[in-house]
Design goal:
- It is a single chain.
- By secondary structure, the protein is mainly α.
- It has 5 helices and no strands.
Amino acid sequence: MNLGDALARKGQPDEAMAHFEQAIKLQPDYAEAYYNRGNVLFAKGRIDEAIADFEKTLQIQPSDADAHTGLW
């Protein structure tokens, strides 16, 4: 588990988002960061942005079952 994920689980979504965004800047093909950010966005009601992150996850890692589930 990474720090962003831990923060999201602790109910600190804004702090988690900052870590996911930093991870994406450092490694633009880091599928897990897009997926995790998508979960936070979804929880915040930012559905269109969450969908975009789940789709980006699948562009990088087409077999990601969690991202497929996120799009259901």
